[in-house]
Amino acid sequence: MPKSQLQCYGESVYCTSEDILTKCARGKNSLERFIAVVAWAISTTRPVIFGWAPFNPVLGETHHVSRGNLNVFLEQVSHHPPVSALHATDEEERLELIWCHFPVPKFHGKSIKATVNGKRHLKLLSHGESYEMNSPDLFFNLFPVPGADWAGTVSILCKESGIEAELIFYKAHSFLGFGGNSRLIKGKIFHSKSSKIIYEIDGQWDRTIFLKEVHSEKTSVLYDARQTILNLNTPFVKNLQEVKPTESVVAWGEVMKDILEGDWEKARDDKRELEERERRLRKERSCKGEDWVPKHFKISQNKEGHWECWPLESSVPPSPIIVPT
């Protein structure tokens, strides 16, 4: 597809018809805010089209977009392995998001499992609350019916309120593509200390998910995918002079143009030229004994191989690329 994976990560944050992040910040109490955070976490899980792959971001590539008061910035901080860092801030709602992506693919014969490592940290600064969560795994089924789906367990924790959630994304089970229910999700919201369940969660993450209060058995809609990710607006460049040369649409601009025009041969040549230039740069740094240092994030890797990212700036400035609201 004519876009970078870095753009896809960013789109899961700023491409929404419904502003769920604002609901997180404006919740009247800790439980109401927590429910909104759960809905937002689900909203970042978008359907993946099997057979269409974005470009692998080049080292140092950036993606910077603003939607209303939300400013989102990403940088590819490592290429081998591929690690992407995201920082988003909304100074009016006083929220901050730090998100580190580190996918690790593994072949399983009939499928490929991409474990998406890295933590997301959502901070609601006005309430002194910080929410930590992980991502589900992405499965590519090769046989008997090709397709892509999210599966696995997502945990969301707010230490300040003592509330926690567990979401289970179920991988579809069917015979030759028939009779299976795909994209199911079940979960619960509970008190961390007592494990007492407050709400039960049930539905399909690409359609509608329901929230049932355990005490009263009252049911409401937690998340409506159609309302959140349909009728999206296309970003536009407000000020071309301010767009960084490392921006995804600049770095991959020629390849994107070739694909959109249907010139696949030129697209392959331009893509190969860009990747070979990146290999030469890596080789030159290796010969000089230089290590790549990200410009916008500090990164570290622990003994278990997990990566963490911290933004160097406290807030993200407005972008010359705008999403209409």
From TrEMBL:
InterPro entries: OSBP_sf, Oxysterol-bd, Oxysterol-bd_CS. GO terms for biological process: lipid transport. Keywords: Coiled coil, Lipid transport, Transport. The keyword Transport applies. It comes from the Eukaryota. The keyword Iron does not apply. GO terms for cellular component: cytosol; membrane. GO terms for molecular function: sterol binding. Pfam families: Oxysterol_BP (PF01237). Residues 257-284 form a coiled coil. Belongs to the OSBP family. This is Oxysterol-binding protein. The lineage of its organism: Eukaryota, Viridiplantae, Streptophyta, Embryophyta, Tracheophyta.
